[in-house]
Amino acid sequence: MGEPFRVSDLLDTLIRLEERGSAFYEDLAARTKSERARALFEELSREEREHEALYSALKKEFGDGAPPDSDRIRHLDTLIRQSFAFEEFRPILKDSDKAWEQAIDFAIQLEKNTAAYVREIRSILRTEAPEVFEAILAEEERHLRMLADYKNEAGF
Fold this sequence. Notes:
Strand content: under 5%
CATH topology: Ferritin
Number of domains: 1
Largest sheet: none
Oligomer: single chain
Order of helices and strands: HHHHH
Number of helices: 5
Structural class: mainly alpha
CATH architecture: Up-down Bundle
């Protein structure tokens, strides 16, 4: 039988998810020719790094605080692949409106999935730092609005 489930596993998954989300937005920022899109993706990447730091602090408070080893990281990446499908996103090979619309749609789905995951963790931790989880969910909702507004204004 495998290791018992730990709260630190949930937080490790969120930390890793935020790392990957930040890298995803950094990649989009580097690829776009639009200054407006670059500013949006850079802001989202920066905020994902802030969330990563917040989850790391929560892990120190509620978990064991130790960084996961390489086997654990591979396991976390498998969980993330199963739940968030980063690999399903095809990198933008051609600078077209359709490619950017797909990137925005993928980012919107990523933010929705992240919010759902945060809600699940909040339900497991219940009384632990409810204000932190509410703030995180508010941020995820703000990211969704930012992306939806960009999509609407871009005319996709």
